[in-house]
Amino acid sequence: MSRASYLFAAFPWDLTDEGPDAALARLAGELGVDGVTVAVVHPGIHELRGRPLGGRWAFRCGAAAHFQPDAPRYAAARIRPITAAWMKSRNPLEHIARIAERERLRLRVSIDPCRGRELVERFSHAACMDLFGEASDTRLCPSNPEVRAYIAALAEDLVSNYPVEAVELAGADFGDPSQARSLADSGVDLPPADRVLFSWCFCAACRQRAADSGVSAEAAAAVLQDRLAAAARLEMRDHATFADVIAGCPELAAYQRVRAESVTSLVRSVKAKCPYRVVYLLDGDLTASGVDPVALADACDALNTSFDAGHRSTELSAGHGAVLRKSVEVRLTCRPPLAPDGPALVARTHEASQAGFDSITFENYGLTPEPCLDWVRQAVRYARRETRH
Ligand SMILES: [Zn+2]
Fold first, then answer.
1. Which helix (H) or strand (E) holds 385?
2. In this structure, which residues have their CB less than 5 angstroms from ion ligand 1?
3. Ligand 1 centroid from CA 174, angstroms
4. What is the pLDDT of residues 222-248, one digit of tens each?
5. Is 235 inside a domain boundary?
């Protein structure tokens, strides 16, 4: 059986506060993981740590880039990284990369480039827009050419300037219904499938992409207006699933295909810039986010999904990886409540390693209470021992 890699996801501010030398030496030595995934573009956090790091329990930061961008790479772009204030003039990623190399830890970077209030405030012209023309205040649209150029420049910057083995891309899609502003105070009791449909983006860039593919965004929008009117007359009680609604309506099916292709081609363009592994993190409701896992797997090197109990509805199994001829990686939370105790984490890690996933990432170093770090140490040792047999 092939041996899985074990990674720990970590925030650069947590590594910096703890002291990157001590933190990475601990990850490599005591915990025995193979690598670290550092979040370098993050949608914003109000963190209560699992243990104090550098004497501090809390950390807060809006949507930002947590490395010093290589400015010329963004010269032609209207959207540029917002540099996190906590770094001051330092470049923590450079420091972390150097120590990771010394500790023989593989370095990955994760970028979550479309989300975050501060990002959308600054580049509001590229925000997702709902059916009613209301701009999202939390999400940039992945169909927008400027957003796509920004994401490609980010990937290029990171793989050119740091010794990374992989880029993990998260949330470079349309997100889920919770961010549609017009649904927050809806007077119409929309069925779940329609809540997803009404979160769809109809910005100018999405409409243009549709038109370029011979698909009418206006026809899809008209269907949604009709469904809304029917729901407002209390005539829509069918509660069909999202898949049923799409299957029964060619206008919506065509627009959904355009959305999925927008995400897939964006990931493909990142892969074209990146000589290393590109991994796409799947999260939440895949139909809502406009993601087609099979096409997406073909556009990058691996899909990464949650392996936590209770979050299995959108999981891809290792079997999917074989079908897709691509690897599927998983992430595991290593603290309560999802991992209630050490034996539970050991068992779950063992299960993931036996299922043939080739990479298992623990979430997340700075959020993990001290006792749970020892659970990770045990889980990695046990899974490695069992895999050798
Ligand atoms: Zn859009």
1. helix 370-388
2. 141, 143, 201, 203, 206
3. 8
4. 999 999 999 999 988 767 888 899 999
5. no
